[in-house]
Structure formats: structure tokens, C-alpha cells
Recover the amino acids of this structure.
């Protein structure tokens, strides 16, 4: 079982809603990530946090807003999303500078 | 140069067979090559990984073969079982503070193992 926990598992939201995805890990990892995965496609990197600071933003639209309140938690705030943003959102973590990355089960997001 | 090309797109084998999934890359800076297994509705799970200084790595029924000169690596699943039916992604990454967590994934292979 993965040690990266994501909530909620499923989320349906309207285009005017504001919602958040949450991620928690207790492996002592100081790097945390958000990936987006469309059906039958590989995961695509969105954001990287290293020591609770945003280190990589892969040119993600501002309607996605990440937040890292502490070393164990990672949030993704969602606002004014489009139907094409519907996807599986994956949180992951690793030790900083170490290649092994562990993924959570993901949050399925549907924008209606 | 950032791409990792994976083949085949889909694969069907009989139980006990040895499916082989191949990946190729161009960027010689890549120094870490993991394979992830993903079941429907689940997140990717790290299966096995290799570095370029090793030509082969085995973990249980899963083996990675690595050919540095050809810039290719492959996953072999010995004695495949129906429970191995999943999507498999190869990936690559390289060291560097600006590249932390940046896995370059192949397009995935959907494997079906028939009973």
C-alpha cells in the first residue's frame, strides 16, 4: 500500500467552484510533487516542492494553485477549472536529490 | 531529446509467458531509469529501477536489461500471471537540483496476461 495518501478520491466540481485536493506523507520526504494524468496517457509533472518551497512550476495555468503548509502536507487549490482539466491528479514524494519517487493513489477530478 | 519512446503500446501473452517491453532514449544525461506499474483506478507503483552502470537488475519475476551504448532498456516479466495485467510505464530522469522529481515517462504499455 502506498504511503502517500490523497483526498478526496473522487471530486466533481463546476467551472465556478473552488475546491482543494490534499496529500499527506509520513515518510520524512522533503520533496513533494503534483502530477496530472489523462486517460491512457503517462503522468505529467505540474509542480515540485523542495523543503516546502516551490522549485518547479511546469507552466501550469494559475487556476491551479499549489500550497505546501508543512513537510508532510501538500495541497492543490482549484478555481475556475475547465472541463479539459478533468483528469487523475497524482501526488508524489521523495527524498530531495534522490530519484525514487512514490506516488499516491490519486484524486479523480471531473469538471462539469 | 527529452523523450522516452516505449513499445509496444499493448501486449497480450498467455499465463507463464515472458512479456518484454522496450524503451529507448536520446538524452545521455539520464542516469536513473524506473519502471512503474499502474492498475486501473490506482496510482503508479514503483516496480524496479536501474542506473546506467548496471546492465541487468532482477527483483523477483521482474528483470530490467540495460544497454547503455544503444540507449535502450527493457522490462521482462518472467512466468507472467493474470495479476500482472496492468499498464507499465518506463521513465527516465537525471540528477540536478533543477530536475528533482522530473520523470520523463514513456507512453505506456497495456499488458494483458490471459489465463
Amino acid at each position: 500500500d502506498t504511503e502517500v495518501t490523497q483526498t478526496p478520491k473522487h471530486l466533481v466540481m463546476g467551472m465556478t467552484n473552488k475546491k482543494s485536493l490534499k496529500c499527506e506523507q509520513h515518510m520524512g520526504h522533503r520533496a513533494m510533487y503534483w502530477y496530472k494524468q489523462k486517460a491512457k496517457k503517462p503522468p505529467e509533472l505540474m509542480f515540485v516542492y523542495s523543503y516546502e518551497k516551490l522549485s518547479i512550476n511546469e507552466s501550469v495555468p494559475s487556476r491551479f494553485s499549489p500550497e505546501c503548509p508543512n513537510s508532510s502536507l501538500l495541497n492543490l487549490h482549484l478555481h475556475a477549472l475547465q472541463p479539459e482539466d478533468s483528469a487523475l491528479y497524482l501526488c508524489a514524494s521523495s527524498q530531495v536529490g534522490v530519484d525514487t519517487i512514490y506516488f499516491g493513489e490519486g484524486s479523480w477530478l471531473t469538471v462539469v | 531529446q527529452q523523450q522516452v519512446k516505449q513499445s509496444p503500446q499493448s501486449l497480450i501473452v498467455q499465463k507463464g509467458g515472458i512479456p518484454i517491453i522496450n524503451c529507448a532514449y536520446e538524452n545521455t544525461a539520464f542516469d536513473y531509469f524506473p519502471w512503474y506499474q499502474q492498475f486501473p483506478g490506482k496510482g503508479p507503483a514503483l516496480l524496479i529501477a536501474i542506473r546506467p552502470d548496471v546492465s541487468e537488475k532482477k527483483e523477483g519475476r521482474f528483470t530490467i536489461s540495460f544497454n547503455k551504448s544503444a540507449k535502450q532498456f527493457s522490462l521482462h516479466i518472467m512466468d507472467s500471471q493474470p495479476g500482472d495485467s496492468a499498464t507499465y510505464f518506463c521513465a527516465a530522469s537525471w540528477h540536478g537540483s533543477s530536475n528533482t522529481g522530473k520523470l520523463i515517462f514513456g507512453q505506456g504499455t497495456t499488458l494483458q496476461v490471459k489465463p
Remarks:
- The longest strand of chain B covers residues 86-92.
